Amino acid sequence: MTSTVFSEQEIQRLRTETKGAENSIHFNNAGSSLPPDVVVKTMVNYLQEEAVNGGYETEYHYREQIDNTYSLIARLINAEKEEIALVENASTAWGIAFNGLHFRQGDVVITSEMEYVTNLIGFLNARQLYGIDIKVIPNDARGNFSLAHLEAAITPQTRLIAITHIASATGGIMPVAEIGIIARKHGILYLVDACQSVGQMPVDVQQINCDMLSVTGRKYLRAPRGTGFLYVRKEVQDQLKPLFMDGHSIEWINETEYQLRNDAMRFELYEKSRALTLGLAKAVEYAMGLGMERIWQRVQSLAALLREQLSHINGIAIHDIGDHQCGIVTFSIKGMDSQRVKSELAARNIHVSVGVARSTLLFMNRHQLPDVVRASVHYYNTEHEIKTMCAVLASIIL
Known about the structure:
The protein contains 14 helices and 15 strands. It is an alpha/beta fold and 398 residues long. The longest helix has 19 residues. This is Cysteine desulfurase.
């Protein structure tokens, strides 16, 4: 039985406010959620006004709302406005943070087997460029990250702990707050990729003790594609070199020198879509209006129901690991390619995605998984939609 934290009437209202919910069963929220109608309307209205009045003129008219985007995001993750930079996606945010560090030969980066492909590429590139070492902490037999192994792996050469909060291709959750305690105790910089967690569960950077956090808008936040943000703790901002700069990034300049601005906006460039920025702001506002704890309870409950129903279908193997799991549910059907499963579901207007091996390469290789079907639920999904998809899967197997 799913949680009653949202009433049936409220769920129906939320679905009415989501145009896409009328047309399909959308279980691809870990890829890109269906946006609330108010998010789309906010962007369209801005673009229409921009077309009539001009880009700079419209930006000036909306300057307070645009500026308030930083404050809303700061409230969402319990940060300060000055610690937020707006960027295009989580990969950009993560790249700005990671590549902004001053690595030296022999520096060690500690990560987990759940790390996303973009981040793994970053590690390998830094190893080629600077001669860093990469230490991977494997999960234990139950699929949980070993804090004891992390503690034992730390040496004076450890420069960074970089962890993906929720992996792309499995529903397990990393203990980021406990890792943060260890990182802070040893004075090690701590970077968290929260692209799959912000929007589906409460994320508090003070509780996590992270120095940097990368986030995308299009996934569980239900914001537009092309939006995201980077959190950089005020105390470590000077430890990161900006990868690019423009007049927006600096406080002042003369003919021989310049001074960076005194906040995280130093990691941005001036030119970006203001319509998308306002769409992101509206999505954050929408999520906070519902309450992140309520959203998280609903997502967990729906995911548990989906796993339970999948477990009763002969031929389906569920691949989620760890004692703590989220709204991402991964599975495979014996003898059937995951892409075919996705196509069969798509033909019936049910959206899932395929998690390929390279997306979470270390985990997938360790478990000899070439790919998995990924069904990711959100609070606007329903029990009936879950039953419908499971009935379709059962018919496919037969």
